[in-house]
Amino acid sequence: GANSTQKAVLITTNGGETWSERVPNSYYVQSVAIGNHGEAWFTGFNGFYKSLDYGETWTKIFTNIEVHEILHVEDTILIASGYAGIQPMVHFCVAKSFDFGETWEPTILPAFVHELYFITPDIGYGYYRYKKGLYKTINGGSSWELTAPEIMVFNIQFLTPEIGWIGDMNGILYYTANGMNSYLKTNCGGEQIHSLNILSSDRVIGVRGNLIFSYKGFSGYTCASSDQDDDGYSDEADCDDANPEIHPGAVEIPGNGIDENCDGFDLVVKSFELASSKITIYPNPVSDLLFINMNIQTDILIKFFDITGKIVHSQSGAQAIDVARLPAGIYFLQIISSSTNQSIIDKVLVSK
To answer: Given this model, what pLDDT does residue 216 score?
Structure first.
């Protein structure tokens, strides 16, 4: 809703009644964090910025890591996810800053941790989206312990290091009062909760689609479950518990209108002709890697645009495109033949 054609960070000083623009050309903003004394930070496609005056003025910071998402702020300590190293040896990491984000101390993360949530500078959780397994660290990410192997994490919110809720991909909420040493299932309706905002030790504001509701986060019961089709997945996770061929671990068959693996989508594969080569693009929607296959190798240029027409990625050749860092939304993929200058354009939905 910014007035500027360049788009910008917006700030309010009256509770949201009016907004003013700061930092032109900062669209898209990936992550924002606010401190206790007027400090603020944001990451976006054009860099990492800091403000010390409640967002009135901003300074671009050139750091020793590529800051991806700010996870936790405590006085002068910041915790962030990011990328450390120099191509081709770039690694996903968790990093600490003790000087308001000017410099960072990175810790390389294991392959099974690609999403992070930190409660304190030392206590945090990690997982890999769309895969089962929740891991916990108590030393700032130096080591990780598998604490909930069956949870496919969708979102996390903790009130204290002990009390929190974890929503999974199938709409179940997991409640813990002891830092995930043990936990109970609640909200067993099976509808996915998109975000959680904690009010107190037993109440949560939840968002599902266009609904906002107040929810008693723990009501003293656990979810009863069954496996009616004997495929090894309970009816809480299985989107069709009467068909043993359909469950979260099933192989997805493209284009048949059936969601075999219970991820909420049927795998869409699109094929095009370009410069005598058949080009196949999949999956769509996509959350991490978008694959581009060709039956005849030819020189191509690939451009990936957001809905404003801004190029967010370009490459030569048909290697897969990593969209995991892009915000969810509609994008356009253009593939250009270098020899004929012909091109095709396909709409791609990036989902999270």
So the answer is: 58
